[in-house]
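Record type: monomer structure entry
Structure origin: computed from sequence
Chain ID: A
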Amino acid sequence: MKLVHFTLVLVCVSFGVSRLPVTSGSVPRDLVDEKCLAEKHTHLSCNKVFCQPWQKCIGGTCICKLPYQCPKNGTAMCSTNGRTFSTYCQLKSFECLHPEARFLSSGPCTGKEFRVSLQHKGRDSEGHVQVKLVELEESMYICQDGWSLTQANVACRDLGYPLGAAQTLDTSSFPANSTECLHVSCRGIETSLAECTFTQRKPNAQGFAGVACYTDDTSAPAKGSFQCVNGKHISRRKACDGVNDCGDQSDELCCTGCQDNSFHCKSGICIPRQYRCNGELDCITGDDEADCDGEARPCQEKPDFLTPDMDAERQRIKSFLPTLSCGVKQSSPSRRKRVVGGSPAHKGDFPWQVAIRYGDSITCGGTYIGGCWILTAAHCVKVNKAHQYIVLASLIDWLKPNSELSVRYVNKVIIHENYNGTTYQNDIALIELKKPSKHKDCQMPETVPACIPWSPYLFQPNHKCIISGWGREKDNERVFSLKWGQVNLIHNCSNFYQRRYHEKEMVCAGTQDGSIDACKGDSGGPLVCQDVNNVTYLWGIVSWGENCGKPEFPGVYTKVANYFDWISQHVGRSLISQHNV
């Protein structure tokens, strides 16, 4: 079996993102990643965002779940079609498939209605917003205080304008004779104002909420515009400010930095700053909820609610979704001030690492991903030799096997159907282990599965990751004990491998000074990256490289995130889906 081994001597360019200065009234163009924009991400792009509990992620897009696939725990909800659903998730899932049936109220249906209307002055699409709550007998205006484009977008969608609001309006242009109003709070994902939270009537100190809904003849902003994926035009200075002005979130999903009052996720998304440390993951990279111990969480007011808090209900439903135990070591990792390439591994350091033995020697590495499944490189295995492979887990030194060593035989090998042995495209394979006699599963003592990433945006260039394995030294000297080293993810490896590097399917990694040698990781072995919550993901599979020792030839790995759907088709989505199930 051919082993991949090469030395990396690289000078990596820093791709760290810092907050960029923003001048009043304009946004620097470099806040928006034009290449990312071309991919047309929206709130349904689960490579960028989490799907809602009533959706699932298939092929990078959030699609409707069937109602019975929702958690059964929850509160009864009434739909506008008069039907009572057992949970909010089931109602939203049904609405997802039948948009005419929307949320009406919490609890069983009573026949009472929710209505939203515009008190016009001038155009039919402009005016004061009035609502009639199920809980109230009379219609009420909405308070200007707290009214923003987030609420306005929901109101206009509710009124039949699919692109939401063009702008909020100065209330002085729409005088109204009333002394009280309702305060409304929305997240922006709602299809009706009925799902937003209304609080007690407030004295009309600041006026009433006004809105101009977006229509086909709404003109683009005079001074530069940003075209949303849904076709809506907004001012370019509103991009990357944490506010979902587009309504489909496309103005906030391709940001190299964020304006003030918003938080920049490492995946290139701007979210409202109040979402930081609010107890719910909003960044797929988890950094909005990292290091929150020393940061004060937003004060939670307890006003007199006139309607149920459906955002809280949505968060509660998410707690019922299945979770996986992957990527977290059973023992606390030992802390090291400095990582040196080729460091010996100790018991429990890499509980997902396995060795693949063929004949009398270890020919490749692999990664345990849960159940009876191992992930490795396609060039490491052959389908017709499946029963000749042996998988060794919890192995440290194969000359002096440790007591924790688990030995498993192979049931079958699945090689990607589009694997190209010449170009190393789709260099990925699955190994299914045989279940030991009288055992229901293949779980091995001391092993922990690595998590499978569903999004290529979880880790960015210059992120520090780990390679491990029994690969040979650069002088071809054999290695008998498991070793590991830290490497950096590298941007745009097509500069090094013209016409041979395929960005969608491959990822590069190396070091700044060449002190860590990629040959420390065997073919098929893991390149793992850890997120801010210390969860370990299998980011790459050791695949190929050239010209040992030359800085312009970094190591190339199979990009596992690109194969999430392929893996799930064979092992079952529930085994590897940590999010967006």
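Annotation 1: Confidence is low (pLDDT under 50) at residues 1-27, 332-341.
Annotation 2: The chain is about 10% helix and 25% strand.
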